[in-house]
C-alpha cells in the first residue's frame, strides 16, 4: 500500500526527533490548507525533501559523492532559507497583530 505524503512526513519527523523538536520549538510545523503537516514556507513535497536532506547533510560520511553532497547542501540551504523567511514573516505579522491589539485595547 502506497503511503501518502502526510504519512511520509510524519514518519520522517518520528525518525528525526531532534529535528522535529527544533521545528516544534520554532513553531515551524504547521498544517497547510489541506490539513497536511508541513514546515512553514515549504510545500508538502519540499517538506519531505527537507526532512530527507537534513540528516544526510548533518551526517555526511561519504555516502554521496562530493558533487552529490554539494548539490544536496545547496538545495538544503535553499529550503532552509524559505523556512527562515516564513518564520520571520510570521514573527513580524504576530508583532504587528499584537501592536494593533494593544492599541485597540
TrEMBL record:
Domain of life: Bacteria
Lineage, highest ranks first: Bacteria, Pseudomonadati, Pseudomonadota, Alphaproteobacteria, Hyphomicrobiales
Name by which UniProt lists this protein: Uncharacterized protein
Amino acid at each position: 500500500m502506497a503511503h501518502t505524503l502526510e504519512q511520509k512526513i510524519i514518519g520522517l519527523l518520528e525518525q528525526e526527533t531532534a529535528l522535529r523538536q527544533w521545528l516544534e520549538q520554532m513553531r515551524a510545523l504547521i498544517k497547510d490548507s489541506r490539513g497536511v503537516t508541513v514546515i512553514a514556507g515549504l510545500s508538502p513535497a519540499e517538506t519531505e525533501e527537507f526532512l530527507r536532506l537534513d540528516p544526510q547533510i548533518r551526517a555526511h560520511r561519504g555516502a554521496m559523492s562530493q558533487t552529490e553532497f554539494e548539490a544536496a547542501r545547496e538545495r538544503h540551504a535553499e529550503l532552509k532559507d524559505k523556512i527562515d523567511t516564513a518564520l520571520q514573516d510570521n514573527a513580524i505579522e504576530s508583532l504587528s497583530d499584537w501592536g494593533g491589539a494593544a492599541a485597540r485595547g
